[in-house]
Design a protein that fits this description.
Helices cover about 45% and strands about 10% of the residues. It is mainly α. A 3-stranded mixed beta sheet has the order 1-2-3, covered by helices on one side. Helix 1 packs antiparallel against helix 2, helix 4 packs across helix 6 and helix 5 crosses helix 6.
Length: about 190
């Protein structure tokens, strides 16, 4: 009896590419072409990027239109899962197809953060800077926690609201520690504080 036929494992899926990473890679390729000094090659590459952007933008516009037609009157219906996906949302924003305004997309981005640690304090449209404020007691109050929240917020906003050019987190006022008041231990003599 012969051994059973071996099947090849399925090909590994390509790693997910964020909108930010895709933009960086396109810029790097265009910069490499510019560095060669071949203006015709650089111009052709830039035209190729524009044509592909137009092609994908038109396709996305059609998909959004078709999904809207099948949606319900309340909310965004079948479009809702697409709006909540960072990569798809970034593509919709890039092609000016995202149906939500900037404040709604900022809220959507902040909702993706575990524990919802931040809320909008203010936004300066002239500079694109979004000021956030902590929403509660999350974290230990150390700089690394603050930096991690800043990084997470900036990453989420780069997908859902790329118009935000900068993120600042307001300082949380320190509260005085709670003073514990209790009865003296039996025996009458004051002991160490507990």
């Amino acid at each position: 009896m012969s051994a059973p036929a071996q099947t090849a494992p399925p090909p590994a899926a390509a790693p997910a590419l964020s909108a930010e990473e895709a933009g960086r890679r396109v810029d790097e390729v265009l910069e490499r072409l510019a560095a060669t000094g071949d203006e015709q090659a650089r111009a052709a590459a830039e035209e190729l990027v524009r044509v592909l952007m137009d092609f994908y933008g038109t396709g996305l516009a059609r998909a959004v239109d078709l999904l809207r037609r099948t949606g319900s009157d309340a909310g965004f219906g079948p479009l809702e899962p697409l709006l909540g996906d960072g990569l798809v949302a970034a593509m919709l924003v890039l092609h000016d197809l995202h149906p939500e305004d900037l404040p709604a997309r900022v809220e959507r981005a902040l909702d993706t953060l575990p524990g919802h640690p931040l809320a909008v304090d203010s936004h300066d449209p002239s500079t694109g800077v979004l000021r956030l404020k902590p929403t509660g007691e999350g974290g230990c109050g150390c700089g690394s926690t603050r930096e991690a929240a800043h990084r997470a917020a900036a990453d989420a906003l780069s997908c859902f609201a790329p118009e935000v050019a900068g993120v600042e987190i307001a300082e949380t006022p320190r509260q005085a520690p709670l003073l514990q008041i209790g009865t003296r231990p039996a025996g009458g003599s004051p002991g160490p504080a507990r």
